[in-house]
Write a structure and sequence with these properties.
The structure holds 2 protein chains of 2 kinds. By secondary structure, chain A is of the alpha/beta class. Chain A is 43% helix and 18% strand. In chain A, helix 2 runs parallel beside helix 3. Helices cover 63% and strands 11% of the residues of chain B. Chain B contains 10 helices and 9 strands. A 5-stranded mixed beta sheet of chain B has the order 3-5-6-8-7, with helices on one face. The chains are: A alpha/beta, B alpha+beta.
C-alpha cells in the first residue's frame, strides 16, 4: 500500500493509529513531535504525512512550514492534519492542505481520507509562502 | 464641567440677579416715598404761606383792635406751623424774612395805609417762588426715579429671562441629553446589543458613569470571550482521549479478523487509560467551575500535613522512578483542614514538579510548622518560569513551556490549588528564575482552635483572574 509518516505526541493515539494503519497494509513510521517528524522525512520521503497540530518542541504547523521552506522534496508530500481544535478547517486552509480530520473520528473516516489524499496527492501549499 | 459646580454657579447667578432686583425695588420705592414727602411738605408750606398772605390782607381790613389781635394771633400760629416745616437754610431764611416783615406789619398797624407793605409782599412772593421751584425739582426727581426704575426693571427682567434660558440650555446640554443617551445605550445593552458603548459626554459626573458603564461592558465582553475560549479549550482537550477510544473501536469491525488476545488486552488497557484521562479532565473542569462559582465544600478534620506530603511523595516515587524525591519536615505539622483537598493540592504541586523537570532531577518537598501557620514548599530542577508566565501561572488554562513531552492536563491544576488554599485562609506563590527551577510555596493557617466541621460550603470571593487562553 503506501508509506506514511505519522506524527502525534499522544502515545496511545499514535500507537493505535499506526497499528490500525499497519493492519490496513500501510508502512507506517511514527514520530512524537515536529522535529522527529522532519527527521523521519529526511530518512525516506513518504507518500503521505499524517500530523497532529498541537505538539511539544515543534508543532504540526511549524513542521509543515519547514517542510515547505527547506525544500528537499518533502514539500510535495500531501499532508493530513489531525486535531481536536474547533478551527481545524482554518488551520488546514492556512497550511494550504485540503486534507484534515477533526478528532474524534472513526477508523473508516481515517482510511477514506488517506485513500483520497493518496489518490489526489495534492501537496500543502501555505498561501503565505507562495509570494 | 462638574454638575455640582454648574448648579452652584447657576443658583448663585440667579440669586444675585434676584437680590439686585430686590435692592433696586426697595431703593426706588424709598426714593419715591422721600420725594413724595418733600413734595407734600412743599405743598403744605406753600399753602401756609398763601394762608399767611390772606391773613395779612384780612388783618389790614380788620378795624377793631380785638379783630386785629385775633388776626395777628392766627397769623403767628400759621407762621409757627410754616416755620416748623422748613428743613433747609434757604427755607428758614425766607421764613425769617417773612417773620421780620410780618412783625413790622403788625407793629405798624393802624397807620391808615390799607395796602400791604411791599417788603411783606416780596417776602411772600419769595416763599412762593422757592417752594414752587422745590416742588418742580421734586417732581422732576420723581420722574427721573420712575425712568430709572423702569429701565432697571426691564434690564433685570431681561437678565433673569436670559439667565433662566441659559440655565435650561446648560442643563439640557450637559445633563438631560447625556443622561438620555446613557439611558438609551444602557437599554440597548440590556436588550442584548453588547457592542454598544455609551458616548462619554456631558457633566463630569455623567462622564464618570458612562466611563464606568463602558468599562463594565468591556469586562463583560472579555468574560464572554474568555468563556468561549474556555469552552473551546475544554472541547479540544476532551477530544484527544475520545479520539483514541473511537479509533480503537476500529479493531473490532465485521470485515476484519479480531486481533490477538494480547493485542486486545493492550487496546482495552489503552481505552481504560484514556477513559480515566477523560474522567480526570471532566473532574478538573467541574472542580474549576465549582470553585469559580464560589461553591467549594470543605470537610475539615484534624490532619497532618507532613503525612499528607509523605503519602503524595511516595505516590509519585512509584509513578516516576526516574526522579529523585526528598521530603523534609520540621516542627509540628498538624492542622485543621480538608485532607482530601490538601492532598489534591500536594499531588498537583508535586505532579507539576515531576512533569516539568527532567528525569534524574531532584524534587524537594519541605513541610514546616510554626506557631499558627504551616508552610509547604515544592522545588524542582526544571526550566523554571519566566517572569511573564509567573504573573499568570495561577490563572486557569495557563501552562508551562511545552518543551516537555507528554505533559498532560489543561492548565487548571494551579488555579484549583490556589483557590483551595484560599478557601482554607492560606495562599500560594511561586519563586523562580528562567532556567533555574521553580519553587511553589504554600502557607496555611493551623486553625486548630476551629472545631472539626461537617461539609461546610465556603464562599470564595470572585478570583478576579481572567481565564487566559492556552
Amino acid at each position: 500500500m503506501a508509506s506514511i509518516v505519522l506524527i502525534d505526541d499522544d502515545d496511545d493515539m499514535r500507537e493505535t493509529m499506526a497499528d490500525l494503519l499497519t493492519i490496513e497494509g500501510h508502512e507506517v513510521r511514527t514520530a512524537r513531535n515536529g522535529v522527529e517528524g522532519l527527521q523521519a522525512l529526511d530518512t525516506c520521503i513518504p507518500q503521505l504525512v499524517l500530523t497532529d497540530v498541537e505538539m511539544p518542541v515543534l508543532d504540526g504547523c511549524a513542521m509543515v512550514y519547514r517542510m515547505f521552506v527547506e525544500n528537499l522534496g518533502r514539500e510535495n508530500v500531501p499532508i493530513v492534519v489531525i486535531s481536536g481544535a474547533p478551527d481545524l478547517g482554518q488551520i488546514a486552509k492556512a497550511l494550504g492542505t485540503p486534507y484534515y480530520l477533526v478528532k474524534p473520528f472513526p477508523l473508516e473516516m481515517l482510511t477514506s481520507t488517506i485513500e483520497r489524499a493518496l489518490a489526489e496527492a495534492i501537496p500543502a501549499r501555505p498561501p503565505g509562502l507562495l509570494g | 464641567m462638574r454638575l455640582r459646580r454648574t448648579l452652584t454657579f447657576a443658583m448663585v447667578g440667579l440669586g444675585l440677579i434676584t437680590l439686585t432686583a430686590c435692592i433696586a425695588l426697595v431703593a426706588s420705592t424709598t426714593f419715591l416715598r422721600r420725594t413724595v414727602d418733600d413734595l407734600d411738605r412743599a405743598h403744605q408750606t406753600a399753602r401756609l404761606a398763601s394762608s399767611l398772605a390772606h391773613q395779612s390782607i384780612r388783618y389790614e381790613l380788620e378795624t377793631s383792635p380785638m379783630g386785629r389781635s385775633l388776626s395777628e394771633a392766627q397769623g403767628r400760629v400759621l407762621l409757627a406751623r410754616a416755620t416748623s416745616l422748613t428743613h433747609s437754610p434757604d427755607e428758614r431764611q425766607v421764613f425769617e424774612d417773612l417773620a421780620l416783615q410780618l412783625e413790622k406789619h403788625w407793629r405798624s398797624a393802624g397807620e391808615g395805609d390799607p395796602r400791604l407793605p411791599p417788603d411783606l409782599v416780596s417776602a411772600l412772593i419769595r416763599i412762593d417762588d422757592l417752594f414752587a421751584a422745590k416742588a418742580d425739582a421734586q417732581s422732576r426727581r420723581a420722574h427721573t426715579i420712575d425712568m430709572l426704575a423702569t429701565v432697571l426693571g426691564v434690564a433685570i427682567a431681561v437678565l433673569l429671562a436670559a439667565g433662566v434660558v441659559f440655565f435650561l440650555w446648560t442643563i439640557n446640554q450637559f445633563v438631560f441629553r447625556p443622561v438620555q443617551l446613557l439611558a438609551n445605550s444602557v437599554a440597548r445593552f440590556a436588550a442584548g446589543d453588547t457592542t454598544v458603548r455609551v458616548p462619554v459626554a456631558g457633566a463630569e459626573e455623567i462622564r464618570q458613569i458612562a466611563l464606568a458603564h463602558n468599562a463594565m461592558a468591556d469586562a463583560l465582553a472579555r468574560t464572554r470571550e474568555d468563556q468561549l475560549r474556555y469552552v473551546a479549550t475544554v472541547v479540544h482537550d476532551l477530544r484527544n482521549p475520545l479520539a483514541a477510544v473511537q479509533l480503537a473501536v476500529g479493531y473490532v469491525t465485521p470485515h476484519r479478523p479480531l486481533p490477538s488476545e494480547a493485542r486486545l488486552r493492550e487496546v482495552f488497557g489503552m481505552i481504560g487509560r484514556q477513559l480515566r484521562r477523560l474522567n480526570s479532565l471532566v473532574g478538573d473542569v467541574l472542580n474549576a467551575v465549582q470553585i469559580e462559582a464560589g461553591q467549594i465544600v470543605l470537610h475539615k478534620t484534624i490532619c497532618d500535613l507532613g503525612q499528607l506530603a509523605e503519602a503524595s511523595v511516595s505516590l509519585f516515587r512509584s509513578m516516576s522512578p526516574y526522579h529523585r524525591f526528598e521530603l523534609s519536615r520540621a516542627g509540628s505539622t498538624t492542622l485543621c483542614a480538608d485532607a482530601t483537598r490538601l492532598e489534591q493540592v500536594l499531588n498537583n504541586l508535586i505532579g507539576n514538579a515531576v512533569k516539568y523537570s527532567p528525569q534524574g532531577s531532584l524534587v524537594r518537598v519541605t513541610v514546616g510548622g510554626e506557631d499558627d501557620q504551616l508552610s509547604v514548599a515544592v522545588s524542582d530542577e526544571g526550566p523554571g518560569i519566566s517572569p511573564a508566565l509567573e504573573r499568570q501561572i495561577f490563572r486557569p488554562f495557563t501552562r508551562g513551556p511545552s518543551e516537555h513531552e507528554e505533559v498532560e492536563g489543561i492548565g487548571l491544576g494551579l488555579y484549583v490549588s490556589k483557590r483551595i488554599l484560599e478557601a482554607h485562609g492560606g495562599s500560594i506563590q511561586v519563586v523562580s528564575s528562567d532556567g533555574q527551577g521553580a519553587t511553589f510555596q504554600a502557607t496555611l493557617p493551623r486553625d486548630l482552635a476551629g472545631t472539626e466541621t461537617g461539609p461546610e460550603p465556603v464562599l470564595l470571593p470572585a478570583s478576579g483572574e481572567q481565564w487566559s487562553s492556552v
